[in-house]
Amino acid sequence: MTPSIAGGKTHGKGLSARVLKAMSVFGGVQMSTILCGIVKVKLIAMWLGPAGVGLFGIFNGAVDMVSSISQLGVRSSAVRDIAAARHSSSVGVTVTVVRRWGWILGLFGALLMLVAAPLLSLKTFGSYDRTLSFMLLAFALLLGTVSMTEQAVMQGMDRLKSLAKASVWSAATGLAVTAPMYYFWHLDSIIPSILVYYVVILIVVMAYRVRNVGGGGVKVGLRETLRRGSGFIRLGFYMTVADAVTQLMSYAFIAYLNNAGGDSEVGFYQAGFTIVNRYVGIMLTVIAVEYFPRISSVASSSWRLNRFVAHETVIISLVLFPCALLFISFAPYIVGLLYSGEFGVAVPFVSIAMVGVVIRGMSYCMSFVILAKGDGPTFIVTESLSAVAGLALNILGYEIFGIAGLGLSYTLWYLLYILIVSFVYFRRYRLHMPPGLMLTGTGAVAVTSLSAAAGLCFGALWVLPVALLASAICVRKVVKLLRR
Predict the structure, then answer these.
(1) Are 95 and 157 in contact (CB under 8 A)?
(2) What single DSSP character describes residue 426?
(3) Of 320, 407, 333, residue with least CA distance to 360
(4) Kind and range of the H or E element at 433?
(5) FRET partner for 99 with CA separation of 20 to 30 A, picked from 158, 197, 310, 405?
């Protein structure tokens, strides 16, 4: 992976430093948020007991479910429009339209929660006794959607430092304000603390919001708001549908696994999948914060897209490749630390799935081009094909090899996904990838595959020398990128 693969002077020291800085900043943000979440759950478990943990899960789950429907994926789709208009005279109008749609969707979500409250209470608790609790959560829907819109504006306008500060202070302040409520009010604190938490988020986000966009004082009529908003609302709708298909396939597999193997097997799978997809996936989420607005702003230029995607693929590979090898080396200890010794069944799953993680990183960079171009129908097709294939591969992998087979199915899933995305990238958009980069990526996948096999056959720590050597090489490559 040489710096020249990333596109020469167009992607030298400045861009590499920018990407790595964003990774370090938002990596810290993610870790801070996760830490606050862990402390929050611990306090709830101590002071409210199992019933409190369960009720928090139910009510927060209801908010998340209704939000995923009512917000229509605007958190991502609006970023694209704002980033594309950032350097034009229309940016003020675009931001105003996005903010107005935030209120429209927030009110829609609140109304949806009010209407659904009796049904949610009945289906969840077997009576209408909790209807008022669900109705009060409508306020959280409104506040959360408005906050989400302001975060989209920050990301689209490249105010990443403000976005990072808002995210950290929201999590920390929210925890500090709600913790005393758990201690003094116990179970009675659940609904009030959720509402207060969303109030805190909105206050913090508003403190860091982007002001005076396009000179300030932009006036946009209702008709213009609806017309200009139709683009990102339509793309957001496609994203919501694609996510719904993915969630449905995931639920279908969990249901199958519970019937085929029992709840213990589900627990082993969830443990392995969480380590692979959530903890390792943090790096991909962090990278997307800076990457998505950047490629959205140049989506009309094939030349610049080619170079941005190639550069990002280099960076992701340099980060994920050694991380995957280190996870293979320490998989038994990581699983034991995060869970317990009886979850050792999940170790082969984690080790084999690390090959899929490396492939996922490469496909990740190309897949974002679909969203950057606003190609909603293609996004639905690629994600739906991927979700259905993932379900079929998971069932087949478990039937043949058990829990370890799910690691193999995860890898095959992302191998198929990169083929699907590559077809769209190369054939539909007529973009290309440097041959040297593709060859290097193939080599990284091969080394990770051999390391996973060696770890399972001879012991995980036998992979450690390879992981350390790969880490040293990748660090050296990163330093070279920064010096160009």
Answers:
(1) yes
(2) I
(3) 320
(4) none
(5) 197
Q: Distance between CA 162 and CA 165 in Å, rounded?
A: 5
The first and second tokens of residue 277, run together, are 């997809």
Query: Phi, psi at residue 163, to the nearest 5°?
Result: -65, -40
**pLDDT tens-digit map of 373-421:** 999 999 999 999 999 999 999 999 999 999 999 999 999 999 999 999 9
Per residue in 247-260, pLDDT (tens digit) is: 889 889 988 998 89
Distance between CA 243 and CA 77 in Å, rounded?
A: 13
Q: What is the largest CA-CA distance in the chain?
A: 68
- Residue 127 φ/ψ region, left for φ over 0, alpha for ψ in the -120 to 50 degree band, beta for the rest: beta
Contact (Cβ atoms closer than 8 angstroms) between residue 158 and residue 23:
no
Which residue type sits at 178?
A: T
User: What is the residue whose two structure tokens read 């056959």?
Assistant: 457
Write the CA distances from 6 to 26, 289, 317, 378, integer angstroms.
Answer: 23, 20, 12, 26
CA distance 410 to 425: 22
Contact status, residue 344 vs residue 332, Cβ threshold 8 Å: yes
CB 168 within 8 A of CB 33: yes
pLDDT tens digit sequence for 293-313? 889 888 889 999 999 999 889
pLDDT band at 10 (very low <50, low <70, confident <90, very high): very low
C-alpha–C-alpha distance, residues 353 and 320, integer Å:
13
Which of 419, 297, 322, 303 shows the shortest CA–CA distance to 366? 419
